[in-house]
Amino acid sequence: MIIKFGLIGGGVMGEALLSRLIARKIYQRSEVLVSEPQTSRQGFLEDEYGVNVTADNRLVFTPTTEVVFLAIKPQVFSAIAQELADVIDTVSKPLVISILAGVTLNQLEAAFPQLPVIRAMPNTPATVGAGITAICPGAYTNANHHETAKKLFSAVGEVVEISENLMDAVTGLSGSGPAYVALAIEALADGGVAAGLPRTIANQLALQTVFGTAKLLNETKIHPAELKDRVTSPGGTTIAGIAQLERAGFRSALIEAVKAATARSQELGK
Ligand SMILES: NC(=O)C1=CN([C@@H]2O[C@H](COP(=O)(O)OP(=O)(O)OC[C@H]3O[C@@H](n4cnc5c(N)ncnc54)[C@H](OP(=O)(O)O)[C@@H]3O)[C@@H](O)[C@H]2O)C=CC1
Ligand SMILES: O=C(O)[C@@H]1CCC=N1
Question: GO molecular function of the protein, one example (predicted)?
Fold first, then answer.
């Protein structure tokens, strides 16, 4: 068994990346080892993607491992780092990529001494190849490591490189953002139901409105404020809706949501 890609934590985000790496043939199934404590989850990943699985995190460090990808919760990071302390391969020096919210490059480099480390923040649309990932390389990385990280995350969407002091803000905006948008879609549909629409039609209208608006903004590159003006007829329906959103503090709620999530990401790193 020649392992090139080791994934620690085969949960939501681990699977999202794994599925695309396999589909894109960036790694062969036999070159991937996923470490995951739950037997049922191991069985699922093995059956679904044909990858190797283990419950022992230490096994991902092999002499041939090129990338160790950390997709566990930040709360178990310290315990896992301790568990790995004596198997870290300082000879072959695999690239460690972490997507853990809040966990800093300093913390990662202390846990993986002398190894190249990249901190990244993807988001769940990665599952369908429509994610966006911010990456931030650590002190021991070189151009090849940056290219490797970009190649992996390009398989799940767009990639931007940022400095680390902005990583918590990225987490608060695009990392957590899919949940805010999902909430908005659900609430729009609820509004439709309140106004008398059947649930299935309301869900479809809400989803396609958000999807179509994002596509329109993306393709035309017009400013969101300009699009809002184009929809808003004098004395019409849209301005009545917008006035209510402003009374309810809609913009402020979104701004404060991003700030609160950013602050929580900062806390997780302490
Ligand atoms: N979800 C998201 O939208 C995003 C998440 N992230 C980051 O990604 C990371 C993972 O999040 P997410 O995928 O949502 O979480 P999940 O809980 O879905 O995945 C974490 C996985 O790690 C497993 N795990 C738990 N303990 C260990 C252990 N000791 N050794 C190995 N694996 C273990 C869990 O197993 P079990 O279920 O049995 O506990 C689970 O399968 C987090 O650090 C988060 O900050 C980043 C960007 C977006
Ligand atoms: O909620 C969280 O902590 C993770 C990080 C970004 C999205 N989900």
Answer: pyrroline-5-carboxylate reductase activity
Residues of the chain with CATH 3.40.50.720: 5-163
* 34: nearest Cα among 133, 24, 48: 48
Probe ligand 1: pick from 7, 8, 12, max atoms within 8 Å of CB?
Answer: 12
> CB pairs under 8 A, 24+ apart, for 248-255?
254/180
CATH topology for 5-163 is Rossmann fold (3.40.50)
Interface pTM, i.e. ipTM: 0.98
Ligand nearest to the CA of 59: 1
What residue has token string 């990392």? 175
pTM above 0.90, yes or no: yes
CATH number of 177-268: 1.10.3730.10
Q: How many CB atoms lie within 10 A of CB 256?
A: 11
Q: With a 6 A CB cut-off, is 42 part of the ligand 2 pocket? A: no
Cβ–ligand 1 contact at 108 (below 6 Å): no
pLDDT tens digit string along 226-265? 999 999 999 999 999 999 999 999 999 999 999 999 999 9
Q: Which strands make up the sheet holding 67-70, listed edge to edge?
A: 52-54, 32-35, 5-8, 67-70, 95-98, 117-121, 131-137, 157-161
H or E stretch at 135: strand 131-137
Tokens 């096994």 identify what position? 59
